[in-house]
Structures are given as C-alpha cells and as structure tokens.
Amino acid sequence: MKRTTGISALQFFILTFGLTIGTSILVTPSGMAHIAREDAWIASLISMLINLLMVILYIALARLYPGQTLYEILESVTGKWPGKLLTLAYLFYFISLIGTLLGNLGFFVSGEVMPETPPEVVQIIFLIAAIISARKGIIILARVGELFFPWVVVLLLVLVLALIPQIEWNYIKPVLEDGWMPVLHAGLQSSIFQEVIVLMVFLPLVRQNKPRERAYLLGIAAGDLVLSAIVLLSVLVLGIEQTENSTFPAYALAKTINIGNTLQRVEGMLITIWILTYFIKISVLFLSMLQGLRSIFGLKRQNHLIYPLSALFIIIAWNTYINTVYVNDIIATVWMKFASLFLLVIPAILYVTALVRVKLLKQKRPEPSSGSRQQESHKTP
Amino acid sequence: MSWGLFLLISLILVPVFETPQLIKLRSPRDLLVFFGIWAVALASTIGVMAGLPQWRVLDWARSFIQLFPG
C-alpha cells in the first residue's frame, strides 16, 4: 500500500477553507452589521482582502525559510530562546482560542439547538472527537476534510439557493451612507477572527511550493467569500436590526427558510456546516498546540500530551465563556489588539528581520530541524 | 452531575495508560513535560471543584493589552 508522507494542495485548501469558516459563519454577520450597518457586505469583502494580504505576508515569510514550520521560523529568525518565548506566546494565543471556541460551542448548542443538554456534555463530546483527530494526526484530518468538503459545499449551496426568494434588496440601501470608516473598521475587526497563521505550522507538509501557496490563498479567499455571502444574505433577508441583535444571525437566517411550506426547518443544514468546519478548526488548533509544545521542549513524541491538554482546554472553556456580555466586551475592547499582535505585528516584524538577515546579510538559512520531519512521523499509513 | 469529578477521574487514569509507554520511550524530557502538564491540569481541575479562582485567559489577554495604552 502506498504511504503518504505529506498532504496534498487540495487537502491544504480544504483545511484553510474549514479554518476560515469554522465558528465565524455563525457570529460574523452580527459584529459586522453592528459597525458597518447596511454596508456589512462591503466590510466582509474588505475583510477578505485583509486576510489575503496576511496570507501573502505568511507565504513571503515561509519562502525565506523553506520547509520550516511557524515555530522553526520563529527560532531561526530571532534565535533559540527568544524563538521559544515567542512560540510560548503563540501557544497562549492558540489555547485562548480553543477555550473560547469550546465555550462558544457549548453556549450555542445548549442555548439554541438542545436547550435541555448541559453545555459541558456538548463540549466533552466534541472534545472527544478532537482527541481522536489529534491522536490520528494532521494527515488523517486532511483526509477527513476531503470527505467533509463536498457535503459542506452542497449544504451551503442549498442554503444560499433556498434563501434567494426571501431577499429584500431595500435592506442594503443606502450604500456607504456613513462613508468608508465604519466599513474599514468592521472589515479589519472581522479579518482578525480568521486565525490562518496557524496553518503555517503545517505548510511544509505540502510538498510542491506553488500549489501549496495557491491552496493557502484560494482557501482563505473561498472561505471569506462564503462568509461574505452569509453576511450579505443575513442583511438582505433579516434586515439590519435583526442581524445586529441576534447572537447567531446565520442560525436565525436558516430558520427563515420556507419554500412552499414544504422545505422548512432546515437550520440543521447550517448546524452541520458549522459543526464540520468547526471540527476542522479545533483539530488544527489542537495539533498546532501539540506541535508547538514538541518544538519548545524538543520532545520525541507528542501524543501523550493529548489528554492532559484536553483537560486544560475544557477547564479554560468553562472559565472563559462565562457569558455573552463578558465575551462581547473582550471582543470589543481587547481581542482585536491582542490577535493582531499574533496575526500581523509579529509576522511583519519577523518578515523584515528575516529579509535583512537572509537577503542583505546573506546569512545561511538553517535546515528544517525538527518540525516538518516530526510531523511526518506523526501519521498513520 | 459534577463535571469536575468526571474530569478528575479521567485525569487520574491518564498516567496509568501513558506512563508505561513513556518509560519505553526512554526520554526523561518527555516524561517531565507530560507530568508537568498533567499536574497543571490536575491542579486546575481540583481548583474548579473547590471553587477557587481559575484560568481566565481572556482576562490575562486584557491585562497584557492594558500594558500598552493607546
């Protein structure tokens, strides 16, 4: 039987797509409508442009250190100990994300879908799926993504097509009434919620240079286009007030579908899309956490860390997602600055430093030390 | 149901399954890191059950950002 030691560009595209859509599909329209009002759809396109620029920055950085993971690049550019410190900072960012995502999952499922089920049960069940995924490794996750992808596309198409008859074009008028500033603000804020930098941990696993860069860019573009479509439909169908005031506008949107009293109550489709892409997102974050710990401590294996880490994730989720008011306050006042540090500021500084070191000072680029090879050993035939 | 207790029992069982494999691996570093993270998880779980102040990572992020006004 043929053994695969990497992931294909298509699989990488699907992982990027899933990471972009996961959770954002449910919550993004609300935040955008709050700031940009009727122009939320323009803001979502601006968010896509910002995300594409971010990915171009990451690709440029990866080109300077080919074959190296994010953590290896951090060490190569800044030195061993500062690199490890930065890796630790990224791990803190990822663990905060996982905690918040798990909390959000419990809050959504218990609040909207299964009100009699405690959020802890939902979180634990989902965490078990993530544990299995983490034990199997990124290659198996990429294959699972390939299986999920057609379903996600078909369900998205059905959802979008079923909403078209209910569109009310007047809801997006007037266009740009308050100028570009709210639109740019909403676009920037939304772009910070696509944590695509995490995929730099797995970028070296895609063998061919050009296809992997194309997959990275197309994955984020496709994911952001879907989000833009959902934002546009939310405003066109629900109107600004309902989009802004719903905690999960996309879910409210799916509930409005009613074609001839025959096709109705299809919000399950949205939940399916969300769960499938959410699974990809949380698994990718979990695997990148394991990879980061392995990189910091120079471990031989990483699988034995899965269970204690999972316990930490669930405890963080219980203590992070206390209530919507608290989380919304953090998102409004802290998260944009905090996340942009990891998504924009550090990568930009790294890129300039790396450019000076590699191009101007002609310093020799170190060979990929452990990360990519370690990841290859973390697979099943 | 006490979810903290469920988590505690699960955590106590983890070293029972993982330690033999870690010993076979002959890597003191792996063993140390595993027990370090396991101890943090165990302490956090006991903290949850005892109602002690917990990991509020978003509050930590807020404190960090407040170091840079403007």
Radius of gyration of chain A: 21 Å
Class by SSE composition of chain A: mainly alpha
Q: What's the helix count of chain A? A: 14
Instruction: Tally the helices of chain B.
Output: 3
Oligomer: heterodimer
Biggest pleated-sheet summary of chain B: none
Spell out the helices and strands of chain A N to C.
HHHHHHHHHHEEHHHH
Which whole number gives the mean pLDDT of chain A?
88
Largest sheet of chain A: 2 strands, antiparallel
Structural topology:
The complex is a heterodimer of chains A (381) and B (70).
Chain A: H1 9-21, H2 24-36, H3 40-64, H4 70-78, H5 80-113, H6 119-136, H7 138-163, H8 181-191, H9 209-245, H10 249-255, E1 258-259, E2 263-264, H11 267-297, H12 306-320, H13 324-360, H14 371-377
Antiparallel strand pairs in A: 1-2
Helix pairs in contact in A: 1-7, 1-9, 1-11, 2-3, 2-8, 2-9, 3-8, 3-9, 3-13, 4-5, 5-6, 5-11, 5-12, 6-11, 6-12, 7-11, 9-10, 10-11
Chain B: H1 3-25, H2 28-50, H3 57-66
Helix pairs in contact in B: 1-2
Report on the architecture of this protein.
The complex is a heterodimer of chains A (381) and B (70). With 381 residues, chain A is an all-alpha fold. Chain A has one domain (9-377): Amino acid/polyamine transporter I (Up-down Bundle), CATH 1.20.1740.10. Chain A has 14 helices and 2 strands. Chain A has a two-stranded antiparallel sheet with strand order 1-2. In chain A, helix 5 (80-113) packs antiparallel against helix 11. The model of chain A has no long low-confidence stretch (mean pLDDT 88). The radius of gyration of chain B is 17 Å and the shape is flat. Chain B has one domain (3-66).
